[in-house]
Design brief:
182 residues, mainly beta, AOC barrel-like, eight-stranded antiparallel beta barrel, 9 strands, globular, binds 2-acetamido-2-deoxy-beta-D-glucopyranose, Allene_oxi_cyc_Dirigent, signal
Length: 182
């Protein structure tokens, strides 16, 4: 009997030393799934475009995304946010910010943008920052803060390319998980 107790005692010690941080379980305090739609200006779609190339490398221009995986392009956007994946749904806010293509040998971007939400369910802003390895199906970026209904909120957003049409349109699904609410 005593030896069994000693065994379990040491087993417990080993477990707790092996995983010092294991105790904490984190669950989101709030979830939100939203979509946004990016229509890049391509020289012909001025009325419909929601994004513009504002920076290009020496070998590119401001009309067409550059060769070499668009490396060096900077795009500013003011994109509609919708509750579902339909481009024509009534927007619930705007996704405003920029992305920078920042790898020379594959497609990746750096995202920095804010969701400005102004509708019956949500009023406030949510700000995002992070690396976006575009070719990966599901990637995580940081939710660095918020205002209004999202005052002092932080968390992680899982983004997925829900659809795209060449270099002109893409739709992102943004699955926001707040781990700090207020
Ligand atoms: C921009 O670059 C593309 C691709 O190289 C080219 O087809 C287009 O003519 C250029 N546009 C301008 C305005 O220079
Ligand atoms: C605007 O762009 C979207 C995405 O490419 C497309 O579905 C829509 O038909 C376009 N609207 C107009 C008026 O061109």
């Amino acid at each position: 009997m005593k030896s069994i107790f000693v065994f379990f005692f040491f087993h417990f010690l080993t477990l707790s030393f092996a995983n010092p941080g294991m105790k904490r379980q984190h669950y989101p305090c709030k979830n939100l799934v939203l979509y946004f739609h990016d229509v890049i200006y391509n020289g012909q779609n001025a009325a419909n475009a929601t994004a513009a190339i504002v920076g290009a490398p020496q070998w590119g221009n401001l009309t067409i995304l550059a060769d070499k995986f668009h490396f060096g392009n900077v795009v500013v956007f003011d994109d509609p946010i919708t509750l579902d994946n339909n481009f024509h749904s009534v927007p619930v806010g705007r996704a405003q910010g920029m992305y920078i293509y920042d790898t020379k040998n594959t497609f990746t971007a750096w995202l920095g943008f804010t969701f400005v939400l102004d509708n019956a369910q949500h009023k406030g802003t949510i700000s995002f920052i992070g690396a976006d390895p575009i070719l990966v199906k599901s990637r995580d970026i940081s939710v660095v803060g918020g205002t209004g209904d999202f005052f002092m909120h932080r968390g992680i957003a899982t983004i997925m390319t829900d659809s795209f049409e060449g270099d002109v349109y893409f739709r992102l699904r943004v699955d926001i998980k707040f781990y700090e609410c207020w």
